[in-house]
Amino acid sequence: MGSASAALIVDYERAAPVSGTWHSSSLHYFDMTLNRRPKGALGGFIEDGGEQRSVGPILFAPAGHHYAGEGGCGRQKSLCVVVEARLVNDADIDIALSGGLSHCTNLEGESLRGLLARIEREVLSPGFASAVLLDSLCLSLIVETARALRLATSPALRKGGLSSRNLRIIEERVHLGDAAPSLSELATLCQLSPRHLVRAFHAETGRTIGDYVQQVSLDRAKEMLISSCAPIAEIARSIGFSNPAAFSTAFRRQCGLSPRSFRMRGRNISVGSQVSHRDPRGFGNGQGKH
């Protein structure tokens, strides 16, 4: 039996807005942006009424469902992962994956981010038995996705604290703004006091709002490290770090590499085998767009 999963990093420029669809009866699809998505990234599922929602950092299209979306002009760099549904043969997990379509355009969870970041590192630098490791990581990824969707759709399991509307306001400001927002700015946008926002965000997501903003800023730094020749100290300042050493420590904690090593490794990826400079939606039976 061959590998049940595949992953690659895609990097392409859109000269005009695009739209498209994705459907596969046998493949689950993940897309984690490695930079900011172009403005106007929207998507939804026909089985969920076709409502278009803002697409966050992690998009998930479960096997057997029809996804349709659109996106604006600009550069898009993503980690794309496909996993054969046969990798997990569990009815309860299948139910969980199919029961939270309204949350699939913006998956949240530290475990999911950690697994996808580990897959990204394996794509950048494959090691011994890489295919076996990838299948193992993807098995965990599917289980964690099922848990995240079950948590998001079950009132009895949710931690509660912050409305879906305010979560979306925060996500859009953090990802679409040119500079990292302050706590007071986010509190004003949500019409909450800063203290209330801090408590509610942590209760809802299990992470601090500062950690979330920093994680998005570091994702932005990864994009600048590969796409520009700017000094590392300058990149650190642009995302809010006054001390380059603190930036390097935070970057290594998230990525497992120093900023300098990440830049060198990212630029040495062989074009074609791991990176595509065109819209990549050619997996399986599906085609898509973000």
List its traits.
290 residues, Jelly Rolls, alpha+beta, 44% helix, Arc Repressor Mutant, subunit A
Short description:
The chain is an alpha+beta fold and 290 residues long. The protein contains ten helices and nine strands. The chain has two domains: 5-157, Jelly Rolls; 164-267, Homeodomain-like (Arc Repressor Mutant, subunit A).
CATH class of the largest domain: Mainly Beta
In helices, the fraction of residues equals: 40-55%
How many domains in all?
2
For the largest beta sheet, what order do the strands appear in spatially? 6-3-8-1-9
Number of helices: 10
CATH architecture of the largest domain: Sandwich
What letter string, H or E per element, gives the SSE order? EEEEEEEEHHHHHHHHHHE
- Uncertain stretches of 5 or more adjacent residues: 270-290
What does this protein look like?
By secondary structure, the protein is an alpha+beta fold. The chain has two domains: 5-157, Jelly Rolls; 164-267, Arc Repressor Mutant, subunit A (Orthogonal Bundle). Helices cover 44% and strands 17% of the residues. It has ten helices and nine strands. It has helices at 91-98, 110-124, 130-153, 164-176, 183-190, 194-205, 209-227, 232-238, 244-255, 259-267, and strands at residues 5-14, 18-22, 27-33, 42-45, 53-54, 58-61, 67-71, 74-84, 275-276. The protein has a five-stranded mixed sheet with strand order 6-3-8-1-9. Helix 1 (91-98) packs across helix 3 and helix 2 runs antiparallel to helix 3. The longest helix has 24 residues, at 130-153. The chain is globular. It starts with a strand and ends in a 14-residue tail after the last strand. Mean pLDDT is 83; it is low at 270-290.
